[in-house]
C-alpha cells in the first residue's frame, strides 16, 4: 500500500519517533542514504511562494540520490487546464513521489487518492506537517524526550501551523496549549482528532484565549505570522486582533527558564514576535529551519520504504 503524509496523524506515534530518530542520523551523516538512487525524480509543486520548503526539498531529494523537479505556480496544467486526478495518474507513471504546497487541503486528498506514489503535503491552508517534524526534531535536540513536555503556540490559532501543532504534538505525547483570540481558534474537528491521539500517547490538549495562562511553565514557545499566505487582504484587521498574543520578553518570562522559542519563518519582527526574542538566546529558529532538510529526508526515506506496489 502506498503511504502518504498529508497531515501529522498520518504517522503513528511509533512511526513519528522512527522518522525523528532517522532525521537525527541523517543530520549526522547526510549522504549515507540513497533511496532515490537512479536518479529517481520527485515532483515538487508550489501554488504558493516558498524559500525553506523549496530549498530543503530540492536539497534533500538530491542528497537521497534523486532528482528534484520543481514546478512553480502556473507552470503546469495542474489546477486550471487539468484535474488533480488526471495529474496524479500521469505523474504516478513518471516520478517516485509528489510534494505539493497548495491552498485547499481537499486537493491534496484528491492527489493522494489517485496517486500510486507517496504524496507529501508541503503546506496547505489546513496543515503544515513537514514543519512540525522539523520543530519536534529541534525541541528534542534541546530538551530531550518530548513526551510530557509542554508546547505553547500563541497567535493565529486557526491557521495551518496551529492545526499541525495540535496533531503532531499530540502524536509526540506532548501537552499542547493553543492560545488565540475568540474567532481565531482551531477547527473543532481537528481539536477532537488531537484529543483522540493525545489519549493514546498521554498528551493533553488545551485551547484558551488566555495567553498568560497558556504560557505558564512552557518548555517550548511558538508563534507564526498573523497573516498567512492567501490572507493578505485582512492584514490590517489581523494585526490589531492578534496584538495581545505577541511573543515578547514578558511573555517568555512566563514560560519555564529553560524554554526555547521556535517560529517556522518567515517572521515579522515587531508583530507576532519581538526582535529581542527571535534574535535572542532562547531562540532556535535557525536550527529549526535547517531541520526541515533532515526531517523531510527521513520522511521521504520512510514513505518510500513503507510504500509497496
Ligand atoms: N516555514 C516554511 O515553510 O517556509 P517557506 O514558506 O519559506 O517554505
Ligand atoms: N501560516 C503560514 C506558514 C508559512 C510557512 C502561512 O500559511 O503562510
Features:
single chain, 309 residues, alpha/beta, four-stranded parallel sheet, 9 strands, 43% helix, globular, binds norvaline
What does this structure look like?
- 43% of the residues lie in helices and 14% in strands.
- It has helices at 13-28, 52-63, 84-92, 105-113, 129-143, 160-171, 188-201, 211-215, 235-242, 249-254, 275-278, 285-306, and strands spanning 41-46, 67-71, 97-101, 119-121, 150-154, 175-179, 204-208, 220-223, 260-263.
- The strands form 2 sheets. A 5-stranded parallel sheet has the order 7-6-5-8-9. Strands 2-1-3-4 form a 4-stranded parallel sheet, with helices on both faces.
- Helix 1 packs across helix 5 (129-143).
- The longest helix has 22 residues, at 285-306.
- The protein binds phosphoric acid mono(formamide)ester and norvaline.
Amino acid at each position: 500500500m502506498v503511504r502518504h503524509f498529508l497531515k501529522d496523524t498520518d504517522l503513528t506515534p511509533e512511526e513519528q519517533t522512527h522518522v525523528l530518530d532517522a532525521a537525527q542520523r541523517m543530520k549526522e551523516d547526510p549522504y549515507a542514504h540513497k533511496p532515490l538512487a537512479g536518479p529517481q525524480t520527485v515532483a515538487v509543486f508550489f501554488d504558493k511562494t516558498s524559500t525553506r520548503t523549496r530549498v530543503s526539498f530540492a536539497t534533500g531529494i538530491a542528497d537521497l540520490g534523486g532528482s528534484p523537479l520543481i514546478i512553480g505556480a502556473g507552470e503546469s496544467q495542474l489546477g486550471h487546464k487539468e484535474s488533480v486526478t488526471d495529474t496524479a495518474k500521469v505523474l504516478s507513471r513518471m516520478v517516485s513521489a509528489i510534494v505539493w504546497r497548495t491552498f485547499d487541503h481537499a486537493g491534496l486528498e484528491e492527489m493522494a487518492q489517485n496517486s500510486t506514489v507517496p504524496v507529501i503535503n508541503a503546506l496547505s491552508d489546513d496543515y503544515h506537517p513537514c514543519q512540525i517534524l522539523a520543530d519536534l526534531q529541534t525541541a528534542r535536540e534541546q530538551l530531550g524526550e518530548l513526551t510530557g513536555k509542554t508546547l505553547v503556540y500563541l497567535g493565529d490559532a486557526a491557521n495551518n501551523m496551529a492545526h499541525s501543532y495540535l496533531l503532531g504534538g499530540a502524536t509526540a505525547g506532548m501537552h499542547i496549549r493553543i492560545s488565540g483570540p475568540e474567532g481565531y481558534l482551531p477547527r473543532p474537528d481537528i481539536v477532537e482528532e488531537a484529543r483522540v491521539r493525545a489519549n493514546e500517547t498521554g498528551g493533553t490538549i488545551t485551547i484558551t484565549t488566555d495567553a498568560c495562562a497558556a504560557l505558564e511553565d512552557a518548555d517550548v514557545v511558538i508563534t507564526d505570522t498573523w497573516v498567512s499566505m492567501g490572507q493578505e487582504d485582512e492584514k490590517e484587521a489581523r494585526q490589531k486582533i492578534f496584538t495581545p498574543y505577541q511573543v515578547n520578553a514578558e511573555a517568555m518570562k512566563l514560560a519555564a527558564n529553560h524554554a526555547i522559542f521556535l517560529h517556522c519563518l518567515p517572521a515579522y519582527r515587531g508583530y507576532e514576535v519581538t526582535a529581542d526574542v527571535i534574535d535572542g538566546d532562547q531562540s532556535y529558529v535557525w536550527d529549526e529551519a535547517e531541520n526541515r532538510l533532515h526531517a523531510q529526508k527521513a520522511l521521504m526515506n520512510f514513505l518510500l520504504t513503507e510504500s509497496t506496489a
